[in-house]
Structure formats: C-alpha cells, structure tokens
Design goal:
Strand content: 25-35%
CATH class of the largest domain: Mainly Beta
CATH architecture of the largest domain: Sandwich
Structural class: alpha+beta
Strand order of the largest sheet: 5-4-10-11-2-1-12
Number of domains: 2
CATH topology of the largest domain: Immunoglobulin-like
Helix content: 10-25%
Number of helices: 3
Order of helices and strands: EEEEEHEEEEHEEEEEH
Radius of gyration: 19 Å
Length: 203
C-alpha cells in the first residue's frame, strides 16, 4: 500500500507528530484485520485543545466531517464520530485501509472551518480498552514560526504504486510480518526507483 504525500508537523513542546493536510489531499491509513471500529474526532485549533462548551464541540465535529467529504455518521447515542463503512476500503492484496480525503474546494473548506487550522484524530479500536490513535491537521494558513510554533517539513513519495505490496497471513495466533519485512519493502521500493527512474539518482 502506498503512502500519500503531505506535511509532517512536529510539536516540540508535546513531542506529538501530525500529518498536516491541505484541501484536495488524501491519505490511506492501514487498519489491519481485527479492528472493532474506527472513529474520527475533532480535537481543536492549531495546537490548543478546544474547550468543551455546550454544543460547541458537536458543531465543530460536524464541520470537520463535512470537510472530510462527509466521512462520519451519527450513532445511536447521537455521536457523529463513527466512520461510514464506504470509507473503509481494501487493496487488491486484501489489506484493509481507511481512505481520508480533504474536500477539494478550498473556498468551501475555509468557509466551513472559518479559515482556522484545525486538528483531528483517527481512533482505531482493537479491543475493549485498546486503541491506536493517529493525529492529523488541516492546514489553511501559514504561520510565522515562534517559540511555541511548529516546524513544517514536506516529504514527497514519488511513484507510490512502485512500493511493493505484501499481505499478512495468520499462522496460529500470530500474523506474519516483521521489522525485516518492512525494511525489505522499502528496499524493494528504492530498487524499483533505481531501475525505473534513474533520473532520480538512486543506485
């Protein structure tokens, strides 16, 4: 499965890393096989967590979901953080992933979010009290770097379809896959770059 390009934001005060996305960008998040649910939650503006005033959090939750191409649906308790099944997809190799995309209409996104950079997180539930949390942000405006600001580094992954796919198989109670397998996947990708795109300078 390929990785989407974006901006990696690092908050050095709290040592949190986030992938910042702009209107029109998307990302695929691997979710494995044994997940029990996926939710997307609004966190706040920039790197300040929002105050949970009455109704305020729900309104911003719905705005974020609309900006994410109507990603969420309301559950039986009125919580609109649950991801709609149609956004849970599968690769040709049978690997499950969540496809998140920011609406491509920049004006629509800015109007709905009041021009604010916002934060949201993806929560993947694996068990009763076990979660995997991935932090994201929607970037609408650039800020001058200050003592509490973030450093933005942009990374591009060219020819993402050249990243070798692999499928995990279950042996007894364990899934195949390991650190060496991940490194082999990376080496295979750069080997493809070296042979198919020599102009990039990989050997």
């Amino acid at each position: 499965m390929g990785y989407e390009s974006g901006r990696l934001e690092i908050n050095y005060d709290s040592l949190e890393a986030e992938l910042g996305l702009r209107p029109g960008q998307s990302v695929r998040i691997p979710i494995g096989y044994d997940f029990q649910g996926v939710r997307v939650k609004f966190v706040g503006f920039g790197y300040r967590r929002g105050k949970k005033r009455n109704g305020w959090l729900k309104r911003w939750q719905k705005r974020v979901c609309r900006v994410l191409c109507d990603l969420c649906e309301e559950d039986e308790w009125g919580d609109s953080t649950r991801v709609k099944p149609k956004f849970l997809k599968r690769t040709n190799m049978g690997d499950n992933y969540l496809h998140i995309k920011i609406h491509s209409d920049d004006h629509f996104v800015r109007r709905l979010l009041h021009g604010q950079n916002i934060r949201f997180r993806v929560e993947l539930k694996l068990g009763r009290n076990t979660y995997i949390v991935v932090q994201y942000g929607i970037i609408l405006k650039s800020r001058h770097r200050g003592p509490r600001d973030v450093q933005l580094n942009e990374y591009n992954v060219p020819y993402q379809d050249w990243i070798p796919d692999y499928r995990q198989y279950k042996l007894s109670q364990c899934l195949t896959g390991s650190g060496p397998l991940a490194w082999t996947t990376l080496f295979g990708y750069y080997d493809n770059l070296a042979h198919k795109a020599p102009h990039l300078g990989y050997k």
